[in-house]
Amino acid sequence: MQDEQAPDGARGAEALPVAGIAAPARRHTLALAVAGLLLALIASLAGFLLADGPAAGWAAATRLTARVSALFFLPAFAASALAQFWRSEATAWLLRERRGLGLGFCASHTVHLLAVIGRSITGDAPSPVAIVGGGLAYLCVFAMALTSDDRAVRRIGPKRWRQLHLFGMHYLWAIFTLSYLGRVVRQDVPMEHALLFTLMVYAMLLRLYQWLHRPR
Ligand code: HEM
Fold first, then answer.
1. Is residue 135 a part of any domain in this protein?
2. DSSP states of 172-194 as a string?
3. Which residue range forms the structural domain that includes residue 59?
4. Can you give the pTM of this predicted structure?
5. How far apart are CA 51 and CA 122, in angstroms?
6. Whether residue 90 has its Cβ less than 6 Å from ligand 1
7. Has residue 13 been placed in a domain?
8. Separation of 114 CA from ligand 1 center, angstroms?
9. For the chain, how many structural domains are there in total?
10. Residue 135 in contact with ligand 1 by CB distance below 6 A
């Protein structure tokens, strides 16, 4: 799902080479993908155990899985800029593991989708706007996950690959940010939503700064 896997031709402002950081060969892609799935399943289970009845359980699972997804999305979204501006073992690790973080996000967000379906079946169906807007987001998520390796870049070409991943990441960012902004304005669980909204905004500012300082 991440541009670090792409050849140089597919790289853009969001994936500037980071001089001085030698990337060890070993990655933890599968482990991170499985971690996304397990954490989302555990969050759903916790939602059901703490909720009062199945309808409330699906609702809690929907909210908690979105939060797990945000924890995978944020570092994947900001990794390149973080590694460029703060060179350290930790930021080099984030950069190296972006594909795994992206796949972890995909796995966790698939559980979000299942929770949304469960919630709809128990009577709380989403609005047509949420179905269309969210549906397009899922097309992006699955398309990016399926094209997250070098072979896919060769198959569809670096330019189209970059367009897909750039559009997808920014579209997902917009949904997260607007969802949290709406909740902050309505003051639902203000601290958690305000924190996630702030982190989303910081991540975008960082990417913007990186883009403005790209080599021309
Ligand atoms: C068809 C697709 C989707 C539907 C129908 C849907 C539906 C929902 C529903 C019903 C909730 C719970 C609302 C509440 O009880 O407050 C929710 C929460 C949320 N969803 Fe989705 N969603 C979809 C896709 C997405 C996508 C693609 C993203 C992110 C890119 C996303 C991010 C969120 C966030 C951030 C929350 C709030 C979680 C919280 O309260 O902390 N959703 N979604």
1. yes
2. HHHHHHHHHHHHHHHTSSHHHHH
3. 26-212
4. 0.89
5. 14
6. no
7. no
8. 11
9. 1
10. yes
